[in-house]
Amino acid sequence: MNYFKEILGYAKPYRKWAVLNIISNVLFAFFSTLSFVSLMPVLQVLFQETEVVYKKPIWTDFTKTKEFVEGYVNYYVSEVAKNDQEQALILMIVLVISLFFLKNVFGYLGMYFLTFFRTGIMKDLRDDLYKKIVNLPVSYFSEKRKGDVISRATTDVIEIQSSFLSILELIVKEPLNIIFALAAMLMFSVKLTLFVLVFIPISGYIISLIGKRLKSKSERVQKEQGAVLSQLEETLGGLKVIKGFNAEERMQDSFEKTTSRFRRFTNSLDKRKSFASPVSEVLGIAVIGVLLWFGGRMVLVDGTIAGSTFITFMGLAYAILTPAKALSKASYGVKKGNAAAERVLQILHTENSIVDQPRAVHIDGFKQGIDINNVTFAYEDEPVLKNFSLHIPKGKSVALVGQSGSGKSTIANLLTRFYDVQEGTISIDGHDIKDVTLKSLRDQMALVTQDSILFNDTIAVNVALANKNASDEEVINALKIANAWEFVKDLPEGIHTNIGDSGGKLSGGQKQRLSIARAVLKNAPILVLDEATSALDTESERLVQDALEKVMKNRTSIVIAHRLSTIQNADNIVVMNKGEIAEQGTHAELIEMKGLYNGLVGMQSL
Q: Which residues form a coiled coil (predicted)?
């Protein structure tokens, strides 16, 4: 129940709805019991068991409640029945209908208030989950399947709402129903009530045995559901490759294996859940059957209880069995919800390794330069960088070149603190970036990646990602600098045109120019270009390269390049090999060395 308590921690802002729900449930339980009790005078009138009372009864004390109520009802019925027995019956029926009406009004209000309570908790839980997801380091998602994270943030949260927080209704409502009904039953017959109390816990225990393994089964179902979502997400992202390689059948086979496992685990879970309903029904009928025999003897043989009283008592007993069965079944909801809550809270409890230090400094601007000192870094076991050192003065452009896997992109990941340095330091203006607030550090940098990461929104929203208050003029100006205005101005709605999922309505070159416009609008002093032109055709590359040259003016630029023709004007070209600096200098200096760089240039010019 620890997970349940933690989820309830989100309830504090919505306490008023919980209080209103409890009040409504108290009144629901009260009128529910009264509605069954009110059947007794109707039956007494029908069976002509009403005792004629002409003197209005007087309240004495609580122990005489039953006698007072019976006496008052009999007095009232006697007064009315003096003139018309049918009228007395109609009045009793109106009373019953009124009480059932009030019961259902407060039942509805209880659910109404619970809705605000429950959806409020779910909103805050989803908000916290999303906040945690966007703040977790990039390394977390390289180890986790995105589909599993999506499953936890969607289906598991829904499971918490449907099966976990629904228990809140049962915790208050059903016990109150049982308590009020038992109080009324004790007034009718202590002997019969004790008989009922012996059998209900036995049946509840039997039902609870069925759900013992439900939590582990629910965990397996939810985990496999994450696998289904993950494979679906990967399929949608790689649809062109799947079709291009005629891999539809292979992917279908893989997906069917996943859904078959999901079906098998779901069947196992549902079989156990479904078994509870008939078992509880049979046990309930068995209790009613034994009660009919035991109470029937008291009516027919012993004569210690009236027939109308016994029928009313049976109605109350049924009113107890229904919430008792609901409470027994609630254990399924708790176990299933517990499994979902555990998966959700695992994300919320994940420690974020890349956070601001307690005394982190805020830097207002970039003034001197960047220093990378003896940095060693490994994603897993094999180091990607080995004792790497580099000084990048303000206003200079530095290009990082080398074969794939030489550690170029890792430098960008470490500069932006997507990953933290394991050995050595990276400093900006003399401050170790681990001692600088993440926001102020990233405010100094604009990033353009090889894959143009765009969102399913308008051009204006994508370009003004770092500044939601940017004016249309500022967006258009950034587009012009990035050579993107030439195609944006011809779109149906200009900068307010939706570009589709991941910018699917645009070409590769157009998407990359929007990414550059986004960097332009941010106007950061440090520009990080991670192979920004490597995936483009010649014409698009020319336009993008021209845009980059405009952006790089008066900025400190770190250019990670695959195509060497794009970085020949860099102030310093660093040639990397297996995580270390093999050569560095200007284009002309490196050509004269006739070393590794010269060989790379020769290969690309062939």
A: none
**Phi, psi of 478, rounded to the nearest 5 degrees:** -65, -40
Long-range contacts of 495-501 (CB under 8 A, 24+ apart): 495/458, 495/459, 495/460, 495/463, 496/458, 496/459, 496/460, 497/458, 497/459, 498/456, 498/457, 498/458, 499/454, 499/456, 499/457, 499/458, 499/459, 499/462, 500/456, 501/456
Over the stretch 64-116, which tens digit does the pLDDT of each residue have? 555 555 555 555 555 555 555 566 667 777 877 888 899 899 989 988 898 88
342/426 same-domain check: no
Q: Domain holding 168: CATH number?
A: 1.20.1560.10
Quote the pLDDT of residue 374. Answer: 93
What does the pLDDT look like over 375-388, one tens digit per residue?
999 887 788 899 99
Whether residue 559 sits in one domain with residue 429: yes
Total count of domains within the chain: 2
Whether residue 572 is found in the same domain as residue 425: yes
Both 321 and 376 in one domain: the answer is no
Q: Which residue has the higher pLDDT, 433 or 202?
A: 433
CATH code, domain with 437: 3.40.50.300
- Are the beta carbons of 392 and 553 closer than 8 angstroms? no
Say whether both 327 and 460 belong to one domain.
no
- Mean pLDDT, range 158-184, rounded to an integer: 77
CA 273 to chain centre: 24
Residues 188, 37: contact at Cβ < 8 Å? no
| Three-state secondary structure call for residue 306 | coil
